[in-house]
C-alpha cells in the first residue's frame, strides 16, 4: 500500500479535504480517501503543500499532430484544414506521426492528464499511449465524401481497427471516428457506425464546429460544398444541422457518438443531444482561437448533457492543458452570457475530470477519487507564487494553477510523473520532433 499525503485532497465528488491522504493498493486501485489522521499505514509519500486530484481527462485531441504546433497560425478555417491535410500527407510519415504522438502524451502527462481521447488517421497514438502507460481511447478516423468511396473506406477502417486492436490493453482501447459531415458521405457514416456497434467500439465525430459546416449541410453551399463539387462530388441540401442528420440517420440513438465541439448548436440541437444522451467534448480554447465562437455550454449543462473538456490538437490550441481548458470554459461562458454565475470553478473542474470520464464511458474506473476506482491521480504544487491564494483550493487550481506542471501523475497506480518530471522520457524525442517542425517549415516555404 502506498499512501499519498497532501495539504489538500480534491475528490471532485465531495468537497476538498485539508490535511488528507489517498491510499493506493497493489492492484493500482484507490483504497482510502480521507483525513491524514485516519489514513492507513504503508509506504508514505508526502506531497507537501499540494493539491491531489483525479487525473485530468482530455476528451478530444489529435496527438499525431503535435509537430504542427505553430504551423498554421492566423489562417481561416478552410485554409487551415486544407493546409493541415496536405502537409500531413506530404511531410508526416508514420515515424514522424508516432514521435509527435509520443511528445503529445508526454506534454499531457506533465499537465496532469491521465486519459486521452484521441482521434487519429494513422493510429500511431495507440502505440504512444500504450508505451507511456497512459489511459485512453484511440478513435480510428474514416474519410470518404464521395458515394463510390464507401466500400474502400470501410475496408480501410476494418483493417486499421484490426491493427489497433492487436495493440489494445486494459488501459487503451479502440474506437471509430467518422471524421465530419463534410468529409464522410452519409452512407459511409451509417456503415461506420453499424460496424462500431457490431464490434462494441465507441464512436466520436467532429460536429457543428464551424459556420461553414452548417452552411454545407443546410444550404449545400459554402467552401466545403465548393471543394467537393470541384472534385466532381454531388452536394445536396441535407439537414438543418449535423445533430439533426445524426438523429435522422438513427446514429444518435444507436451509436450515441461523442460529439466533438458543438459550437454552432442551436436550441433544437441541445435538446436532441440531451434527449439521445450523446456526450459532448467541449474545446473552448481551440474554438475561440480558430474564430468559430463559443459553444452553448451552459445550455448543454442545463439540459443535462454529459460534457467533457478537450484540448483539440496543438495545431489549433498550441497547448494541451485541461486545467487551463477548465479556466477557459469559465471565462468564455461568462463572457458569452454576461453572467458571473454562468459556470463556476467547481463545476469546471468536474467537467475536466468526471465529466470527461462519463463522456468516454470510463466513469466507473476514473474521474473522481473514490475507493475502488483506479488510481489515476494528479498533484499540483501550491507552494509557489500562483498557489498562494486566499480562496478555496478548487478556485486556486482552476483560476491560477492552470497552466502549471503536475508534480505527480499516476495511472492505475503506476507513477508516470514524479517531482514534476515525466519518468522514462526519451531524451532524444524533442529533437526528433523539432526536426519534423523544421521539415514543415521548409514545406511551407516551398508552397509560396
Ligand atoms: Zn479535432
TrEMBL record:
Name recorded for this polypeptide: Amidohydrolase
SUPFAM superfamilies: Composite domain of metallo-dependent hydrolases (SSF51338), Metallo-dependent hydrolases (SSF51556)
Record key words, sorted: Hydrolase
The Amidohydrolase-related domain, residue ranges: 52-414
One of the record's GO molecular function terms: hydrolase activity, acting on carbon-nitrogen (but not peptide) bonds
InterPro entries found in the cross-reference section: Amidohydro-rel, Metal-dep_hydrolase_composite, Metal_Hydrolase, MTA/SAH_deaminase
Domain of life: Bacteria
Amino acid at each position: 500500500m502506498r499512501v499519498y499525503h497532501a495539504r489538500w485532497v480534491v475528490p471532485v465528488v465531495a468537497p476538498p479535504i485539508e490535511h488528507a491522504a489517498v491510499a493506493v493498493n497493489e492492484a493500482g486501485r484507490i483504497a482510502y480517501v480521507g483525513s491524514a489522521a485516519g489514513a492507513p499505514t504503508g509506504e508514505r509519500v508526502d506531497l507537501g503543500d499540494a493539491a491531489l486530484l483525479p487525473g485530468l481527462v482530455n476528451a478530444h485531441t489529435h496527438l499525431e499532430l503535435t509537430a504542427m504546433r505553430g504551423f498554421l497560425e492566423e489562417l481561416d478555417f478552410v485554409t487551415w484544414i486544407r493546409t493541415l491535410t496536405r502537409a500531413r500527407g506530404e511531410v508526416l510519415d508514420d515515424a514522424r506521426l508516432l514521435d509527435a504522438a509520443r511528445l503529445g502524451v508526454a506534454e499531457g502527462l506533465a499537465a496532469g492528464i491521465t486519459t486521452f481521447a484521441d482521434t487519429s488517421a494513422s493510429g500511431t497514438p495507440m502505440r504512444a499511449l500504450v508505451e507511456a502507460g497512459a489511459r485512453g481511447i484511440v478513435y480510428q478516423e474514416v474519410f470518404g465524401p464521395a458515394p463510390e468511396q464507401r466500400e474502400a473506406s470501410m475496408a480501410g477502417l476494418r483493417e486499421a481497427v484490426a491493427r489497433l486492436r492487436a495493440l489494445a490493453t486494459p488501459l487503451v482501447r479502440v474506437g471509430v471516428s467518422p471524421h465530419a459531415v463534410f468529409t464522410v458521405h452519409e452512407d459511409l457514416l451509417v456503415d461506420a457506425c453499424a460496424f462500431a456497434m457490431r464490434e462494441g467500439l465507441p464512436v466520436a465525430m467532429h460536429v457543428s464546429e464551424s459556420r461553414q459546416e452548417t452552411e454545407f449541410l443546410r444550404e449545400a453551399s459554402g467552401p466545403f460544398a465548393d471543394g467537393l463539387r470541384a472534385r466532381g462530388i454531388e452536394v445536396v441540401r441535407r439537414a438543418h444541422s449535423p445533430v439533426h442528420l445524426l438523429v435522422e440517420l438513427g446514429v444518435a440513438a444507436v451509436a450515441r457518438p461523442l460529439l466533438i465541439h458543438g459550437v454552432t448548436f442551436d436550441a433544437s440541437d441541445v435538446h436532441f443531444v440531451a434527449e439521445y444522451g450523446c456526450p459532448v467534448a467541449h474545446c473552448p480554447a481551440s474554438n475561440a482561437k480558430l474564430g468559430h465562437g463559443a459553444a452553448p455550454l451552459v445550455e448543454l449543462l442545463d439540459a443535462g448533457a454529459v460534457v467533457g473538456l478537450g484540448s483539440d490538437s496543438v495545431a489549433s490550441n498550441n497547448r494541451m492543458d485541461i486545467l487551463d481548458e477548465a479556466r477557459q470554459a469559465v471565462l468564455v461562458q461568462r463572457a458569452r452570457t454576461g453572467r458571473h454565475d454562468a459556470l463556476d470553478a467547481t463545476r469546471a473542474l468536474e467537467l475536466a475530470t468526471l465529466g470527461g470520464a462519463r463522456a468516454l464511458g470510463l466513469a466507473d474506473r476514473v474521474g473522481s477519487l473514490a475507493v475502488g476506482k483506479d488510481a489515476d491521480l494528479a498533484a499540483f504544487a501550491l507552494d509557489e507564487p500562483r498557489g498562494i491564494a486566499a480562496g478555496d483550493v478548487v478556485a486556486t487550481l482552476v483560476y491560477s494553477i492552470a497552466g502549471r506542471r503536475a508534480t505527480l501523475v499516476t495511472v492505475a497506480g503506476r507513477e508516470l510523473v514524479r517531482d514534476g518530471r515525466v519518468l522514462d522520457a526519451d531524451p532524444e524525442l524533442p529533437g526528433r520532433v523539432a526536426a519534423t517542425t523544421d521539415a514543415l517549415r521548409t514545406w511551407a516555404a516551398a508552397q509560396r
